[in-house]
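To the wet lab folks,

You asked to see what we're planning to order before we commit. Fair enough. Below is the target structure as tokens, and below that is the sequence we designed to fit it. If anything looks off to you, flag it before the synthesis order goes out.
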């Protein structure tokens, strides 16, 4: 699971599962390497499934501070991941 800022034209703080076809040639956040390259590398070298969760930033300007909406979304995701991890196996 990769969580990153993703400019998807949504409201600030929106959480979205990013389809792999939206990654081609796109760089998210401040990354210089396209995430499609990282996803391909992880799949070929480790054989793992990769899911990208994007959080819409309020601003994509370099060095812009994280907005309250994004901070709330990060807390929501952390809570959801924490609950999933603590859930007993079935």
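Sequence we intend to order:
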């Amino acid at each position: 699971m990769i969580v990153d800022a993703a400019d998807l034209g949504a409201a600030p703080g929106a959480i979205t599962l990013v389809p792999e076809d939206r990654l081609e040639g796109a760089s998210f956040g401040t990354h210089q390497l396209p995430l499609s390259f990282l996803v391909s590398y992880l799949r070929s070298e480790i054989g793992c499934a990769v899911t990208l969760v994007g959080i819409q930033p309020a601003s994509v300007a370099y060095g812009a501070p994280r907005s309250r909406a994004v901070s709330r979304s990060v807390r929501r995701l952390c809570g959801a991941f924490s609950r999933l991890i603590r859930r007993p196996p079935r």
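Structural context that might help your review: Residues 35 and 51 are 11 Å apart (CA to CA). Residues 68-86 form the longest helix (19 residues).

Thanks,
Computational group
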